[in-house]
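step: validate -> pass
step: tokenize input -> pass
step: predict -> running
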Amino acid sequence: MKMHTYKSFNIVFTDKDKEFMESNFRLAETIAEFIGPHSEVVVHSFESLEHSVVKIVNGHHTGRKVGSPITDMGLKMLSTFEKTGDATPKSYFTRIKDGSLLKSTTCVLAGENGKPIGLFCINANLSYPFAEIIKTLMPDTIDTSIGAHENFSSSPSELIEKTLENAILKVESDEAVNLKSKNKAITKLLFENGIFELKEATNVVSERLGITRHAIYKYIREFRT
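step: predict -> pass
step: emit ->
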């Protein structure tokens, strides 16, 4: 791997570097929302090590905000990357000022031409009662229903079949849908779920519903308008 040398470790970003860096902001929000409020997610930029934090979610754990400097661990990882090219994510335990125990993981973010442009860090605060942490990972016990249904399929055809089966069951259980409009209602559900973005979908649906592909296309044109 080609090594890069940077004066004082502050890197001049290209437009593509900046775009890639900003693309991680939404990822940080997604991970923080998924794990819960007991974890801090941080994006560091090597464009300015003195003000490296460019995105932080739940920064109250470490008392940092956008514009805060890089950590000593971050500097160590950057130095290691420059010498060896090793960008393997690192997990470690550490304590912050108030004594709280964190489990952290950090990975190097690569930009244009593979140069390091920052760090993506997750810090889980383990000092909270374990029951509180687990509660954020579980559905509300008061509401026994699961809010979303998701098919985890190993192939496109399996995904289409499962989604089609669910649509058929939903339409057939709806007394407001008469027999004549059943196929159109099923097709509409599939369309709204984006299943026709998959190449095999039109053939599978037309065969299962016993209608032509032209009928499917006609329905889709109506839905789009």
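step: describe -> The first strand starts at residue 39 and ends at 45.
step: cleanup -> pass
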